[in-house]
Amino acid sequence: MSRSAHPAGPRHADVLPEGHYTAPAADLNVLDPKVWAQTVTRTASGSVSVGGIDVATLAEEFGTPAYFVDETDFRARARAWRTAFGHDADVFYAGKAFLSRAVVRWLDEEGLNLDVCSGGELTTALSAGMPAERIAFHGNNKSVEEITKAIEVGVGRIVLDSFQEIVRVAHIAQSLGKRQRVQIRVTVGVEAHTHEFIATAHEDQKFGIALADGQAAEAVRRALTLDGLELIGIHSHIGSQIFDMAGFEVAARRVVSLLAQVRDEHGVELPEIDLGGGLGIAYTSDDDPREPHEIAKALGEIVTRECEAAKLRTPRISVEPGRAIVGPTAFTLYEVGTVKPLEGLRTYVSVDGGMSDNIRTALYDAEYSVALVSRTSDAEPMLVRVVGKHCESGDIVVKDAFLPSDLAPGDLIAVPATGAYCRSMASNYNHALRPPVVAVRDGEARVIVRRETEEDLLRLDVG
Ligand code: LLP
C-alpha cells in the first residue's frame, strides 16, 4: 500500500474524522461510574479520591504520572466473574492485561486461575505462589525453554497453537517422562467487531489452527496419537474489546461441531472447551458492556444447546477475561504541564506521561475519557486533546474530550479505565521512566510495581 504525501496543515495529527466526538457532558465535575473504578468519588472539597485517599495526597506521595488501581474494585470484579461462572466452569484471568505479584495473590485469594503467555509471566505467577496446576500457558511461538519450564513446574494446561508445537510439546513432555494436559487453539473464522489489529479468529492471522479444510480435525488426530500429550479440549479466542455476543455464539457452535466430529472419528468426547477472553469495557460513557452474569448465562446456554443438538455431554467451559477484570479498576494520574489553545480548533493539554504509559490511543485509535480531579470547576467546557511529552505528534493520550476552560499547569487530570494493556504495554521511549502502579484500598495506598529510576535505565545499558 502506498501512502500519498499531503501538506502538513493544522490538522496534520488528526487520526479520526471530524465530528466524531459527542457534546460535552452537562456537568464536567460529575464522574460517570461506568468508566471510573468503584471507590472513586468526588469529595466535599471538590477533589477526587480513590479508596478513601485524595488524589492530591497520592500525587504528593507517589508522584505523577502514576497508575492507581482500586483493589476493592479489582477483587469485586474477579469475584463477580468467579461467581457468575460457578463451579462447573473456570475463569482464567489473562495476565497480559496487567500482571504483578500482588495481582496474582488477589486472583489466588478470589479463586481465579491464570492465563500466562510468556516465560516472564509464568515466573511472576509462580513467584507469587499461584499453584502451577491453575496456570494455562499460551503463545504462538513458545520457546523450547518456556515449554520445558512449564512442563517441569506442572502447569495445568498448555494451549497448542501450531502443528509444529504439537510435536514439540509432546517430545519435550515425553523426554521429561510426563504427559502434559493440552488444549488446541483453533481459529473459527469469526471476525469479531473490534479493531482489526485485535481481532484474532479470522483465518488470515498468526494464531491457532484453522477449523477450515479439516486442519483442526487433523491437529486433534495427531495430538491423540502422541504419548506425551493428554488432549483435554479445544480453545478459541475471537478478539478483544467485544460487546456483541454473536461472535461467541458462532465460535461456540463451531467448536462444539469439532467436538462432535472428534467423537465420531475417534470415539473420544473431549471434556473441556475454552472460549477465550475479549469482553469489552466502558472507556467512555457511550460504551455499554455486559455484566459477567449475563455473559456466563449466554455462553452456558449456547454451549448446552449446541451439545444437546449434537448429543454430546456438555464440556466444562473456561473463559479468559483480562481487560474486563482489570481495565475499569485503574486510572492514570497526570499533572498538566502546558495548555496550548488553537483558536477554532482545539486546546492541546500536555501531561507528564504519554504514549510510553498508554500506547493504545496511538496504536488502535482507542478512545478514552478524562477529568480534572484536583478540583471542581464551573468554567465553560473546552474541546481538548490530551497529549504526552514524547517526540511525535501521534503521542496522544485522549484524542477528543472536554475539560473546563480554566485548566492550568499544575492541575491534576486523570484518565479512567487504564488498568488493562497500559502498564503492561508501557515502554521506555525517549528513556521515559515507566510509572508505578499503586494499589489503594480502605484508606491505604501501597506501591505494587515501583516507578523506574534512572539507575534502572543505566543498569541495562552496560556501556
Ligand atoms: N485469551 C487469549 C488467548 C488472548 O489472546 C487474550 C488477549 C485474552 C485471553 C484476553 O483478552 P481480553 O479479555 O483482555 O480482551 N493490546 C490489546 C489487546 C490484545 C489482546 C491480546 N489477547 C489492547 O490493548 O486492546
From TrEMBL:
<feature type="binding site">
    <location>
        <position position="323"/>
    </location>
    <ligand>
        <name>substrate</name>
    </ligand>
</feature>
<dbReference type="Pfam" id="PF02784">
    <property type="entry name" value="Orn_Arg_deC_N"/>
</dbReference>
<keyword id="KW-0457">Lysine biosynthesis</keyword>
<dbReference type="InterPro" id="IPR022657">
    <property type="entry name" value="De-COase2_CS"/>
</dbReference>
<feature type="binding site">
    <location>
        <begin position="320"/>
        <end position="323"/>
    </location>
    <ligand>
        <name>pyridoxal 5'-phosphate</name>
    </ligand>
</feature>
<dbReference type="GO" id="GO:0008836">
    <property type="term" value="F:diaminopimelate decarboxylase activity"/>
</dbReference>
<dbReference type="InterPro" id="IPR029066">
    <property type="entry name" value="PLP-binding_barrel"/>
</dbReference>
<comment type="pathway">
    <text>Amino-acid biosynthesis; L-lysine biosynthesis via DAP pathway; L-lysine from DL-2,6-diaminopimelate: step 1/1.</text>
</comment>
<comment type="subunit">
    <text>Homodimer.</text>
</comment>
<feature type="binding site">
    <location>
        <position position="364"/>
    </location>
    <ligand>
        <name>substrate</name>
    </ligand>
</feature>
<dbReference type="GO" id="GO:0030170">
    <property type="term" value="F:pyridoxal phosphate binding"/>
</dbReference>
<feature type="domain" description="Orn/DAP/Arg decarboxylase 2 C-terminal">
    <location>
        <begin position="332"/>
        <end position="419"/>
    </location>
</feature>
<keyword id="KW-0210">Decarboxylase</keyword>
<dbReference type="InterPro" id="IPR022643">
    <property type="entry name" value="De-COase2_C"/>
</dbReference>
<feature type="binding site">
    <location>
        <position position="421"/>
    </location>
    <ligand>
        <name>substrate</name>
    </ligand>
</feature>
<dbReference type="GO" id="GO:0009089">
    <property type="term" value="P:lysine biosynthetic process via diaminopimelate"/>
</dbReference>
<comment type="function">
    <text>Specifically catalyzes the decarboxylation of meso-diaminopimelate (meso-DAP) to L-lysine.</text>
</comment>
<keyword id="KW-0456">Lyase</keyword>
<dbReference type="InterPro" id="IPR000183">
    <property type="entry name" value="Orn/DAP/Arg_de-COase"/>
</dbReference>
<dbReference type="InterPro" id="IPR002986">
    <property type="entry name" value="DAP_deCOOHase_LysA"/>
</dbReference>
<protein>
    <recommendedName>
        <fullName>Diaminopimelate decarboxylase</fullName>
        <ecNumber>4.1.1.20</ecNumber>
    </recommendedName>
</protein>
<feature type="binding site">
    <location>
        <position position="278"/>
    </location>
    <ligand>
        <name>pyridoxal 5'-phosphate</name>
    </ligand>
</feature>
<dbReference type="InterPro" id="IPR009006">
    <property type="entry name" value="Ala_racemase/Decarboxylase_C"/>
</dbReference>
<feature type="binding site">
    <location>
        <position position="360"/>
    </location>
    <ligand>
        <name>substrate</name>
    </ligand>
</feature>
<comment type="similarity">
    <text>Belongs to the Orn/Lys/Arg decarboxylase class-II family. LysA subfamily.</text>
</comment>
<keyword id="KW-0028">Amino-acid biosynthesis</keyword>
<feature type="modified residue" description="N6-(pyridoxal phosphate)lysine">
    <location>
        <position position="96"/>
    </location>
</feature>
<feature type="active site" description="Proton donor">
    <location>
        <position position="391"/>
    </location>
</feature>
<keyword id="KW-0663">Pyridoxal phosphate</keyword>
<dbReference type="Pfam" id="PF00278">
    <property type="entry name" value="Orn_DAP_Arg_deC"/>
</dbReference>
<dbReference type="InterPro" id="IPR022653">
    <property type="entry name" value="De-COase2_pyr-phos_BS"/>
</dbReference>
<feature type="domain" description="Orn/DAP/Arg decarboxylase 2 N-terminal">
    <location>
        <begin position="73"/>
        <end position="327"/>
    </location>
</feature>
<feature type="binding site">
    <location>
        <position position="421"/>
    </location>
    <ligand>
        <name>pyridoxal 5'-phosphate</name>
    </ligand>
</feature>
<dbReference type="InterPro" id="IPR022644">
    <property type="entry name" value="De-COase2_N"/>
</dbReference>
<feature type="binding site">
    <location>
        <position position="392"/>
    </location>
    <ligand>
        <name>substrate</name>
    </ligand>
</feature>
